[in-house]
Specification:
The chain is of the alpha+beta class. It has one domain. The protein is built from 2 helices and 4 strands.
């Protein structure tokens, strides 16, 4: 059997842990973390927009159910002013038909739910603004109310 012989010298090396991190290494790490966080924040923002739009559509569905229940008991939908009215004025729906009137999740000036009923109160439309499409959409029951029919929310 052959043994490998080595010289018995001691190598002196300076360990990296003795030196610490260089300024360049720290700057590179900070730059990478900054880029990753900006990507995550951008994708989270679009997820928030989708979540708020989903909430708006769910609110419209709840309003639609409340309108139908009201009409079932009263043979007509709640009256509105000509040209439409803010949903927050529908006090006759609470608490019998809906526990609380919905408010827009973002709650900014343009994102308010409106409703409009026909003159005979046999049809209605609910108007809301979606962030994703940045335009109004409508939930309509019965004959379309002039100017309140397209595009449909669902």
């Amino acid at each position: 059997m052959k043994f490998l012989q080595t010289n018995n010298f001691k190598l002196t090396t300076q360990r990296k842990s003795d030196r610490g991190f260089t300024l360049i290494e720290l700057l590179v790490v900070i730059a990478i973390i900054g880029m990753l966080s900006s990507v995550v924040l951008a994708s989270m923002n679009s997820a928030r927009v989708k979540a708020r739009d989903a909430r708006r559509l769910a609110d419209a569905k709840q309003l639609q159910t409340a309108f139908e229940a009201y009409a079932n008991d009263n043979s007509a939908y709640p009256a509105s002013a000509s040209g439409g009215e803010n949903v927050s004025t529908l006090s006759e729906l609470t608490p019998a038909y809906i526990t609380a009137l919905p408010k827009d999740p973002k709650n900014s000036g343009n994102n308010i739910y409106y409703y409009n009923t026909s003159s005979d109160r046999q049809s209605y439309s609910i108007r809301l603004r979606l962030e994703k499409d940045s335009g109004y959409c409508y939930v309509t029951e019965g004959s379309a109310i002039s100017g309140w029919s397209t595009p449909k929310c669902y």
